Amino acid sequence: MKIILTGFMGSGKSTIAERLSNMLDIKNIEMDDLVLVKSERKSINEIFEKDGEECFRKLEAKVAAELSNREDVIVATGGGVGTNQDLLKVLGGVSIYLEVDFEEIEKRLKNDQNRPLFKDIKEAEKLYKERKLLYKKNADHIISTNGKSVDEIVQEIIKKLFFMCEGGRCGGCSGCH
Ligand code: S3P
Predict the structure, then answer these.
(1) Considering only CA atoms, which residue is closest to atom 4 of ligand 1?
(2) How far apart are the CA of 128 and the centre of ligand 1, in A?
(3) With a threshold of 0.90, does the pTM exceed it?
């Protein structure tokens, strides 16, 4: 099984990937970590500053290609990946969009210095609005995470992946509602 977690910066992809990885005993991969290794820079910020976003996106696409044949992994994508249908196709697997309100993201990231695209709140909000529909459109499943604990979110994902019934006949699975 290959699970691809998508969503905006601060939506909890890495945290959820880690928890899922422990629960399902499947390896967890951070796409940004692999991009960083390829870049030979010290941080994602430094890639954006010295090489530019275009270079970052090229490295991201290379990483996606390298992950295309991997099975039995949970991939925590960078926030741009879920907006790019082509990259998701290359990655394969089942994609899950972690949906969260911007207000919540703002609370989580307002003091964050590590995200080049979250330096200006207004710009970040604009990006969020531009991307929201794309994340939804491109994902196999959408999980609304507002006000939910990590455990609740992980349980919902597991239900969606393993207990989906057909056409709502079970009366109890999360996929029917
Ligand atoms: C990006 C999100 C970041 C990182 C890069 C670009 C984006 O990852 O890949 O700064 O385009 O939204 P996180 O979503 O883990 O912050």
Answers:
(1) 78
(2) 12
(3) yes
